Amino acid sequence: MTEPLLHLAGIGLSFAGNTVLQDVSFAVQEGRVASLIGPNGAGKTSLFNCITGFYRPRAGRISFAGQDLRRLKPHRITAAGIARTFQNLRLFREMTVLENVMSGMHCRTRAGAIGAILRLASQRREEEEIRAVAHECLAFVGVADERDRIATTLPYGHQRRVEIARALATRPRLLLLDEPAAGLNGGEKRELIGLIRSIRDQRAITILLIEHDTGLVMRVSERVSVLDHGQMIAEGTPREIQTDPRVIEAYLGSDEDADALL
């Protein structure tokens, strides 16, 4: 098997003496859709925050495409090729849909403040490129017609798509989605599954998602990892996870719940 795109080994994280993550190890192969599930408080978002540089683990190693991420700041990790969305939407409230997505290209800009002030030709070309990328990303997620609206006035499901478009605008190799189905209705969830698959298949972006909707997870994922109380208790294919007694006890609750996901 080839080296994984993302590899975590022995990750430990504590706050004020309370253990949040303990000896967590797992890997994501390039070209996969992988999911991280577990009960509330299991440490899933904390693990995302370690990967993206918002938290610095007290122990362990994190590598992405062979690069050590442990000492990099979040914007450097984004520039290295990891983008994310958040459990709670973080769109800029006074900016249009297009402007929100254009902001995702900040990590790829080169002209700098002086170029912007002087309106140099290189700065104008870069701005045109940023705008073109933002338009393309909005078209890809299906909200291009709303590009001139203030982003926070859109229906909730469309705001989710704008956030995904902004993440895509960073040109990632790995996209982390934190509960992308939260607040969506059944039809929107089905569309989300199609969008996730399109991101992987058409844009060659590897995806790791946190999601409480286990039905969605089992339909879209090729690999599932399960956290409970800050420890990795199971990993495998969706079918293996559905029938794992540790997962049923810790997360799914009963054999009936597991059967409902088949």
Provide the gyration radius in Å: 19 Å
Instruction: Characterize the main sheet.
Output: 6 strands, mixed
Can you tell me the CATH topology?
Rossmann fold
Helicity range: 40-55%
Q: What is the CATH homology-level superfamily?
A: P-loop containing nucleotide triphosphate hydrolases
The strand count comes to 10
The CATH architecture would be: 3-Layer(aba) Sandwich
Structural class: alpha/beta
Question: Low-confidence spans: pLDDT under 50, at least 5 residues?
Answer: 112-118, 254-262
In the sheet with the most strands, the strands line up as 6-7-8-3-9-10
Order of helices and strands: EEEHEEHEHHHHEHEHEEHHH
Number of helices: 11
- Give the overall average pLDDT: 89
Judging from the principal axes of the Cα atoms, what is the shape?
A: globular
Account of the protein in words:
The chain is of the alpha/beta class and 262 residues long. It has one domain (6-260): Rossmann fold. It has 11 helices and 10 strands. It has helices at residues 44-51, 74-80, 97-103, 112-118, 121-141, 156-168, 186-203, 214-220, 238-242, 245-252, 255-260, and strands at 6-15, 18-28, 33-37, 59-64, 67-68, 82-84, 174-178, 206-210, 223-228, 231-236. It has a 6-stranded mixed sheet, sandwiched between helices. Strand 7 (174-178), helix 7 and strand 8 form a beta-alpha-beta unit. The longest helix has 21 residues, at 121-141. The chain is globular and about 55 Å long.
